[in-house]
Specification:
single chain; mainly alpha; two-stranded antiparallel ribbon; globular
Length: about 230
């Protein structure tokens, strides 16, 4: 989103925001919105944990199917259910204007509240000796991402979708360091990250710098989380 100065009807100088991209056809914008919904930040952690639980052959290898299901339910409650309920309550109490969190002001309380949920799930998993390090580090990365997102939100409306894509992509890449045959998963993760970031440029009012900044925040968060998440 670029900004230029223009004279309005009252002959006063004002800022006018213009999209960085040319307005796309309706069908393309509709597809972009669908992609944005499917890969909403509250869903992405569940996708990654599901990958760890059911696809990666090593991370949850020692867990029974019941324990795997419990891990997935815990992730859903803390990464998805509580954040969604939090935003809905904030909207009902009129602390935010819309559930889409379209302004920087609207995002402050959700960032703080979700950070609490994210830290809590990391703390619980960290104190369970049998829990795999990869899941613990991923939870820490999400907490770090929400914290960095809150700080950067002071200066710009950084893309939450891009943050989640940065965490997801870097997590899959780091998992590939310890496994073989991960090339296809990394390729899929790259494709998804590219599709989602492009979709946000088309379907939202984010500037390109807000998308790129979000992606960088997510990447750095997973790198830091991998380094300190299981200390």
């Amino acid at each position: 989103m670029s900004v230029r100065l223009a004279v309005n009807k009252e002959n006063q100088l004002q800022e006018i925001s213009e999209p960085d991209l040319v307005k796309q056809p309706v069908i393309l914008r509709w597809i972009a919105k669908v992609i944005s919904f499917i890969f909403h930040p509250v869903f992405v952690p569940i996708y990654v944990i599901s990958f760890m639980v059911y696809i990666d052959p090593y991370i949850f290898a020692g867990f029974s199917m019941w324990n795997k299901s419990i891990a997935l339910i815990q992730a859903f409650v803390m990464f998805t259910f509580f954040p969604v309920v939090t935003v809905l309550l904030l909207k009902a109490l009129k602390f935010v204007n819309t559930v889409y969190l379209e302004t920087q002001k609207d995002r402050i309380i959700p960032y703080i509240a979700c950070g609490i949920w994210y830290f809590w799930v990391w703390y619980v998993w960290h104190n369970l000796p049998e829990y795999p390090a990869a899941a613990i580090k991923f939870a820490m990365a999400i907490f770090i991402a929400s914290s960095l997102g809150l700080m950067v939100n002071i200066y710009m409306k950084v893309s939450m979708h891009a943050i989640s894509m940065g965490v997801m992509l870097t997590c899959i890449i780091t998992l590939g360091f310890d496994s073989t045959g991960f090339g296809v998963y990394i390729a899929v993760a790259l494709l998804i990250a590219g599709l989602v970031c492009t979709a946000r440029l088309i379907a939202s009012n984010h500037a390109q710098k807000e998308i790129y900044t979000g992606l960088i925040i997510g990447i750095l968060s997973q790198i830091i989380g991998t380094s300190i998440g299981n200390f």
